[in-house]
Amino acid sequence: MARRESVAGTALDPVIEFATLEIDGETYHLAYDFNAIAEAEKLAEANLLHGMAALMFNSTTAVQLRGLFYAGLRKAHPKMTLAQVGAMIRIDTMPDIRDALLRAYNASLPEAKKILDPPAGGSPPPAN
Fold first, then answer.
1. How far is 35 from 67, CA to CA, in rounded Å?
2. C-alpha distances in angstroms, 43 versus 18, 47, 113?
3. I need a surface site. Which of 38, 41, 85, 107 has the fewest CB within 10 A?
4. Of 98 and 42, the one with more pLDDT
């Protein structure tokens, strides 16, 4: 029997919600899943789950930011290298990258868990 190609879990999967980001006239698509984070964590040599929490408060390290950006790009841009991703992170692109990472993370959550307004400027989320 011939093997059928599947788009499940790829950039063509209609179930995946991507955040978009434009840098230097190029559009990039970001999405998160646990496997991408785990794979990027090995390459980035950083704890990206802690990095995700730190992202909420604008306190990520450079290594965490690069690793999170790389993980978010893996689904739609699988051929990008960690070095290429790092080269896109500059003082002028950091705010947009951070915003896109938060939107991609938010899109990866089930509807009931979505973060409606990520804290700005490192402020902690309001207490419930």
1. 13
2. 23, 11, 29
3. 38
4. 98
For 44-95, what is each residue's pLDDT tens digit?
Answer: 888 888 888 888 888 889 999 999 999 999 999 999 999 999 999 999 999 9
CA distances from 61 to 11, 15, 39, 68, 98 (A): 28, 31, 18, 10, 12
User: pTM for this structure?
Assistant: 0.74
* Distance separating alpha carbons of residues 23 and 38, to the nearest angstrom: 25
